[in-house]
């Protein structure tokens, strides 16, 4: 009996170490999203309200940045912020939660699927993605 309890405890500890859920997993991306909302409001006069509709403006902002031909390294932090913002929109719209593992962050929706909004923001920068469409699909609007 002690062995089974020990094995269960070890497995639970390993799972917790590998994967954290809210609130600790959410701390960084939620902060990045809030910083992005503030920066866009103050610097770009772009109002972001955590609605799915606001992701149209985010996709357009990324398109504008891409049009300036800025090197990826110069916009990496901005893209991370936009991705975190989109992830937080998904969390709020679809009832998802942030999940962290190995320094990476994803959103898990109630249906068990995982979404990578930071990667999608990077894909937007290469004209191969859309945060608006990611949110639609994650929220079940694409079915």
Total helical elements: 6
Low-confidence stretches: 1-22
- How much of the polypeptide forms β-strand, as a percent range? 5-15%
Helix/sheet category: alpha+beta
Task: Give your account of this protein's structure.
This protein has six helices and four strands, in the order H-E-H-H-H-E-E-E-H-H. The N terminus is likely disordered. The radius of gyration is 17 Å and the shape is globular. The chain has a four-stranded antiparallel sheet. Helix content is 64%, strand content 10%. The longest helix is centred in the middle third of the chain and has 23 residues. It has 143 residues and is of the alpha+beta class.
Topology, element by element:
Layout: H1 2-18, E1 20-21, H2 24-43, H3 54-67, H4 72-94, E2 97-101, E3 104-108, E4 114-115, H5 117-125, H6 131-138
Antiparallel strand pairs: 1-2, 2-3, 3-4
Helix pairs in contact: 2-4, 3-4, 4-5, 4-6
